[in-house]
Amino acid sequence: MTDARQDAPSFDGDDMVLPFTVEGLDVRGRVVRLGPAVDAVLARHGYPPAVSRVLGEAMALTVLLGSSLKLEGRFQLQTRSDGPVNMLVVDFDAPDRLRGCARFDGEALAAALAAGETSTGALLGAGHMALTIDQGGHASRYQGLTPLEGKSLEACAHAYFRQSEQIPTFIRLAFGEEMVGGPQGGGRYRAGGLMLQYLPRSPERLRQADLDPAGASGADAPGDESDAWTEARLLAETTEAHELLDPGLPASRLLYRLYHERGVRVFTPQPVREACRCSRERIINMLGSFSPAERRDMAADDGRIGVTCEFCSRRYELELAQVEAELAAAAMAASGEGGERSP
């Protein structure tokens, strides 16, 4: 942990989350910077630029929210809506694995762009955003829902925290393309985000936190006790997209610009990497959810079942006979018939 001074370690670099706190204002937060991780996902799928932007923002938001998980667990952001980009799925597997994919209607997307409906809210349309926390083991699985209603992902996240968590929260997301190799070169996608939460400790500020956290929606909360959150939020609102994306501006330097007068402190950054959870074993387990007749219908004439992972586009070719044998062996082991029995 260190002060975010100009002479402090820069904590620069991509694909990382930098936690911080501003004790003078009773706020904590995180800055996320995504470079190769988000570019690898988007380049692999070859999405249109507008779809890449929406998914890139969703990936930055997922890391901001999911990186609060300790040691293990999965955080998933999923949208289902009636807009041109009708589904997003982004997984963050603690402590550092990120993957994502999108579905879209090409004709509807072209029509929306031609009509100038280019905002994230317009491309998503009406529907809902689900945030799911699964920490595995015996821990309970939690899911929160918030309506999209043509709003940005930032606005939906604000609504979620206001209604479900009742924690005054501010989130800013950014997405862009970094040109490399001069005018004739290609581009690399980048995404970033800033998250700020008001968690007062003093009795006076705790009483204010029990009231309607109007500051989370952008309105000032009444009373002098709201001054700390109002100041913190207004400073965060000055953050521009290029500051969250600029590889030459370390995240710690950005935080110093915002909160040096209040004593911002940064903690050890957490790495983030693009990685898929798919495997041959998981694919076979998934096929086990279908009946033998359905699996036979899936097989091609050569007796193989082909499955492509929607996240990483990896193709699996599995022999139907081998799949059936492995599923039968797994079922036998699960029933206790495949091993020694206790006397």
TrEMBL record:
Matches recorded under InterPro entries: Heat_shock_Hsp33, Heat_shock_Hsp33_C, Heat_shock_Hsp33_N, Hsp33_helix_hairpin_bin_dom_sf
Keyword Magnesium on entry: no
UniProt source species: Camelimonas abortus
PANTHER family reported for this sequence: 33 KDA CHAPERONIN
Keyword line: Chaperone, Cytoplasm, Disulfide bond, Redox-active center, Zinc
Claim: Signal is one of the keywords in the record: no
Protein name (database record): Hsp33 family molecular chaperone
